[in-house]
Amino acid sequence: MTSLRYRRAPSLALAALLLLLPRSAEAQAPVESAASAPAATPDRPSYDVSLRADADGSHWTGRQTVSFRNASRTPLRSVDVRLWGNGTDGCGAPGEPSPVRVSGVVGGTPRPLAVGCSALTIDLSAPLPYQARTSVSFDLAITVPDRVHRFGRDGAYRYLGNALPLLSVRDARGRHLDPDVGFGESFYTLAGDFRVVLDHPDSLVVPATGSTARHAGAPGRTVSSSVAHGVRDFAWAAGPFRSRTVTTPGGVRLNAYWTATTSPEGVAVDLKAAVGSVDEFGRRFGRYPYGELDLVMSDALDDFGSMEFPGLVLLWTEPEGSAVVHEIAHQWFYGIVGNDQFSAPWLDESFAQYANQSFYRDDAAGCWEDQGEWPSDTAALTRDMGYYADGRRSEYVRVVYMRGACALHDLERVLGGPAMAAVLRGHVRDHWLGVATTADFKRAAQAATAKDLGPFWTEHRIF
């Protein structure tokens, strides 16, 4: 994922950078074998959410239930729920509580909030055996922060990305309770199913992840019900958006939403690029599985940029367009093929930027050499977000986006175009709605050539 901005023109991209119903998760989830490493758990999550908005969509209240299976042979005694919406504000202040608040937990006993009030551990009512299912539920209150952000507001428009609590992952490396470092992403979730019912005033147009049906609610209100299968998160927006729907030649429904001040030329540019890229990426990497995709555009997101969520992308759009192609590429890299974004941010950002440059047919010959020296002796493509947060934020874009994309172009020159295309398509197929690691990708690339890629990984610092 990204909160940065990319356009076709390299000069615009670099300037912005330096500013720092398809397949279900149930069918795709891997089954742990006796000889395998501990499986990621809890898996096969199913989220059922019902929320009611106030008059302008600034406050949402209701209840959320999440059911899940224990994929580990060790009984599961607790689960961790991430309240990523609290990542920026933490535990709040007197009179200003955290934006996302949970209460009334059923199915377990909550511990005190941790990691800046972005992590809630719930001790289950009883240990959950291997392959058994259970659920927890809680009251949920969301207040949209007063800032222009992926979880924030822009005039009359509200953006609710990272607002819903999500199950954290436990795997061979243990519990994942990494912090939100304030830039990039720290997310790591397993694909699941969502049913989200949003009760809101008629005046609010509500784009959302998944397929959405709308019907009349109480007088002056509309109920928008969204269903999404095999996604890692759920996002929505609310406001007096203008809208238009088009269907790509490949059959993907694109729902465009934009604010009153967004450039009509920019909307047209974004739609054209979206139509072309979602179909091209479907041919290259595997058909887009969610049927429809919402494009939410605003000209007021300049301090934030753009951000992708499953089935919905938030775009800073000006007359020349936005980062729409990069964000759509993320539907495959992190959306379909998941990764631990805290420990391996290059696996989605480098891949999305490579796909973006490939779509625009950018001349990438020699781009690795054009990068010049590494920004430091310790820099590497496979550093985690903790490394960048420790006083090295200036390296993040230069390495993860720029060098990462160039490394993949360089690998394409080593393997050859057809072989690289086959590697990427196989990478997506083999980890469809699952989770990939750097080691997985290195194995797939090595299998495509008789050349020893060891020197390549060393030169490009892919460890």
TrEMBL record:
Keyword terms, alphabetized: Signal
One Pfam assignment: Peptidase_M1
Domain Peptidase M1 membrane alanine aminopeptidase per the UniProt entry, residue ranges: 322-458
Signal sequence interval, chain numbering: 1-27
Recorded superkingdom: Bacteria
Keyword Signal: yes
This protein's name: M1 family metallopeptidase
Lineage: Bacteria, Bacillati, Actinomycetota, Actinomycetes, Kitasatosporales
